[in-house]
Specification:
7-stranded antiparallel sheet; two-stranded antiparallel sheet; single chain; binds zinc ion; 2 domains
């Protein structure tokens, strides 16, 4: 059998596993609930999605299907996706998806209310944990496949094992913060700090809880990684910027960075945003905004992502303004 036959076999198995994992039933993430999670829309209930979709679609960075050998290629690209695919994951059962977020869903989301900002971030954090769990499941099944373990080169199998270990550590860290958020929501303590301000921007949403600003030196400590909360919440004629962190788990890089947003001018927004977005997956934009970005600029953006991909250090690269002249209102 020649190499191309092997490649085809590998690809077929990867696709099959991918399909099966997507069809998997996941449990509701609410403690002590044994119901099956339904597809939860992260933005639709808040009506936020209306400001970034056109004909029910938006443009988002999406992972390409798992490929057999194209490891050197960037595994992401911009795609036109339906809003269901764009921002929904099986996180909570129907009952909990409604009851947990009632306060911010009935049209009274107050951007200066810390509890509201925390609830909004809590849902994002849970989605981030679930997203990681789904990838772990995919990778585990790949490693369990006898045919794949025969056909895949040893270094790819090794890379998958490393990925699983990294994701599991990530899930552990995220669960720590999930606990912290739940405690804060119950006791009204104030461990989380937010900057929340309106920006004269349009057509982009971001909903992320990440470990951005991580540095090699952080891995020397046994502590949880610092989390960085970042949301862009589009409204009718402005966009609310929300940045946040945990008071007891923060480094100077995060604090300084948030200070910069406090005093940034509208000319800097595009560069600062592009830097963040090159490091995050959970964001999207109106298709008409995407259409206005010159092709060469999009390719530059891919190059920025590629140059930071696979580096441990996670800093925003602010060398490009993807949205120059496009998103300011
Ligand atoms: Zn439930």
């Amino acid at each position: 059998m020649d190499v191309s036959d092997d490649l085809r076999r590998i690809q077929t198995i990867l696709n099959k596993i991918h399909k099966n994992v997507l069809e998997e039933k996941w449990p509701c993430m609410c403690h002590d609930c044994h119901d099956t999670a339904v597809d939860c829309h992260l933005l639709m209930r808040n009506g936020i999605l209306n400001f970034v979709t056109e004909n029910g679609r938006l443009v988002a960075l999406r992972a390409k299907k798992p490929a057999a050998f194209k490891q050197e290629e960037l595994p992401f690209s911009f795609k036109l996706v339906g809003n269901r695919e764009a921002v929904s994951l099986p996180i909570f059962c129907n009952t909990h998806d409604t009851s947990l977020f009632k306060e911010i869903e009935d049209g009274s989301f107050d951007f200066q209310n810390i509890r509201h900002l925390l609830l909004y971030s809590y849902r994002t954090l849970c989605s981030e944990i679930r997203r990681k769990e789904i990838i772990v499941e995919q990778l585990k099944r790949e490693l369990n496949s006898n045919i794949l373990s025969e056909l895949l080169p040893i270094e790819i199998i090794y890379a998958k094992k490393i990925s699983i270990a990294g994701l599991l550590k990530g899930i552990e860290d995220m669960n720590y913060y999930r606990n912290q958020m739940e405690t804060n929501l119950q006791t009204l303590s104030d461990d989380f700090v937010f900057l929340s301000k309106p920006l004269p921007l349009k057509g982009i949403y971001v909903s992320s809880v990440s470990t951005l600003f991580y540095d090699e030196q952080d891995s020397l400590s046994e502590k949880e990684l610092n989390i960085f909360i970042f949301h862009l919440i589009p409204q009718n004629n402005y966009t609310q910027l929300v940045l946040g962190y945990h008071k007891k788990h923060v480094n100077d890089r995060i604090k300084k960075y948030i200070k910069r947003w406090e005093s940034a001018s509208s000319k800097e927004y595009g560069y600062m945003l592009t830097g963040l977005l090159s490091q995050l997956e959970s964001w999207g934009m109106r298709p008409s905004i995407f259409k206005q970005i010159p092709k060469a600029r999009i390719n530059k953006f891919y190059a920025v992502i590629a140059s930071n991909f696979n580096t441990i250090r996670q800093y925003p690269d602010e060398s490009l303004d993807l949205f120059d002249g496009i998103i300011n209102t």
